[in-house]
């Protein structure tokens, strides 16, 4: 059973934590900027072809996720409160540092969307919302399954010490899963998988329709995947050192 550490407020003043928060802010900002920007571009350029727009958004997210996870190696490149929760459930980050990451991610997502709104001349910021005919429970289940697959991939390709031939491919493969999930779930739940990615557009647009779905679903899916993979699939030959516990 994974041991979850509470951590202390002293972490906030430690140089490694401060550096990690700066990197997490930058990478989350750039991820949301590209992700939301691609959705805005799709609405502008492919309004008459929803399939082309969906594909463009999926590809953009797949690419930027892979790159930003790699670029954010200092912080772990979470980019996502659900990823942070999944790693917390596996004992890879303290509770206190998790809260710092969540605040950091929400601030970065908000800043990215505010900047996009300004530099596009006030273009509408598309939010995540449920498609017509998709109920709240259905939307939550969509987000649970999609986020579960995201965290399962993170654990299998980056956290698991026995990842073998997959070593080094984790960020790219995680990006592929995000893109595939958007193609599958985008027309139904929006395929957020990320409360911060949904929070920024909702804040800027002032439209909170179905917003709770994009917290409940991803957090359940992420936490569940982290707990299951860590406790049922990872076999460790020795206790991890504290410095290793912060990484994935």
Automatic annotation (TrEMBL):
Belongs to the MIP/aquaporin (TC 1.A.8) family. TIP (TC 1.A.8.10) subfamily. SUPFAM superfamilies: Aquaporin-like. The chain crosses the membrane at residues 21-42, 54-79, 99-119, 139-157, 169-192, 212-229. It is a multi-pass membrane protein. Keywords: Membrane, Transmembrane, Transmembrane helix, Transport. It is found in: Membrane. PROSITE patterns: MIP. It holds the Pfam family MIP. One of its GO terms (molecular function) is water channel activity. This is Tonoplast intrinsic protein. The keyword Transport applies. Its main location: membrane. The keyword Cell cycle does not apply.
């Amino acid at each position: 059973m994974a041991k979850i550490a509470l951590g202390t407020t002293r972490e906030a003043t430690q140089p490694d934590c401060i550096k990690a928060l700066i990197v997490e802010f930058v990478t989350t900002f750039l991820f949301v900027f590209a992700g939301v920007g691609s959705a805005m571009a799709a609405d502008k350029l492919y309004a008459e072809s929803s399939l082309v727009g969906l594909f463009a958004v999926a590809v953009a997210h797949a690419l930027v996720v892979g790159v930003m996870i790699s670029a954010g190696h200092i912080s772990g490149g979470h980019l996502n409160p659900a990823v942070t929760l999944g790693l917390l459930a596996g004992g890879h980050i303290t509770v206190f540092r998790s809260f710092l990451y969540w605040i950091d991610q929400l601030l970065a997502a908000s800043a990215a969307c505010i900047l996009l709104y300004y530099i596009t001349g006030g273009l509408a910021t598309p939010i995540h919302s449920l498609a017509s005919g998709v109920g709240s429970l259905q939307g939550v289940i969509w987000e649970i399954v999609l986020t579960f697959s995201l965290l399962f991939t993170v654990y299998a390709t980056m956290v698991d010490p026995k990842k073998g031939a997959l070593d080094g491919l984790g960020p790219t493969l995680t990006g592929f899963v995000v893109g595939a999930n958007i193609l599958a779930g985008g027309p139904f739940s929006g395929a957020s998988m990320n409360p911060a990615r949904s929070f920024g557009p909702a804040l800027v647009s002032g439209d909170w329709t179905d917003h709770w779905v994009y917290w409940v679903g991803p957090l359940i899916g992420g936490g569940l995947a982290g707990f299951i993979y860590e406790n049922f699939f990872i076999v460790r030959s020795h206790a991890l050192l504290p410095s290793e516990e912060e990484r994935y």
